[in-house]
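To: structure desk
From: M.T.
Subject: fold request, one chain
Message: Could you run this one when you get a chance? Sequence is below, nothing fancy, just the single chain.
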Amino acid sequence: MTELTRNSYAKVNIGLKVLEKRPDGYHDLDTYFHLIDLHDVIHFLFDKSSELSIDISGNESYLEKGRMDLMEKSARLFSSLSGIKFRLNIRIEKNIPSQAGLGGGSGNAASVLEVLNELCLSPFSRKELADISLALGSDVPFFLCGSAAAHGQGRGEILSPLTPVSYPLLVVQRTSDKVDTASAFRRLDERCADDVRCLPPWTVDVSAWQKLYSNDFDIIQPVLENAFYMAERENALYSSTSGSGSSQILVYDNNCELNEAYNRFSALGSCFTVWKTKLRNNIH
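Reply: Done. Structure tokens follow.
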């Protein structure tokens, strides 16, 4: 039996534009994905077997009753397409908040595909893994593209590597906020055609991001009605929604400014949950 541990990193969107609705019901997107240090820790126990067996623990707090974990879907998809059966035990230490626009579940699914491919002597190339992973979710291919930052188009699966940066970052989520993704997309479909446009080209000059890279989902974020949060945004180099929300990202010039902001958010008690992290400039 083989045992290994893998960090599964979160992502943020530096700008996100929702373009036309496609015939398949999805929307074309234009976004810049970027990994951050915030991560889950996934422990794997693996052994070849004549029967497929998958056991997952540590997901009880976020998995809805009767719903299959995306990691299990990932493992079953790999087995089905590769023809390889195995016994797989997964234990996850969950640190990335669920349904927050940070790609936690997508990154976990990608980690399972990557680890299984490694343990099964690489039946799939990296590109084939990324193509396979689109069946699990639009964000999953990014976590398999081999770059800490990438330009995402199409559903998000058309990826072009970018030069990543490393900057201090806060991820902030107001406890009471919930954003329904399907409803959010319906609201964006009601915009005027003139509002549908792509992002400007990528730059590593973080001080320019606020003017260049907005997120269309900002318009439906309840936290933007909170006076405290709006005042804190003014202290950041860059602030925006990640994905469709409800988490917000605040990028800072240095750790001193980040720590001061973290303390101010923490002083509010249970109103906000806040994580210290940074933009990653590598994938490991």
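Reply (cont.): The mean pLDDT is 92. Let me know if you need anything else for the meeting.
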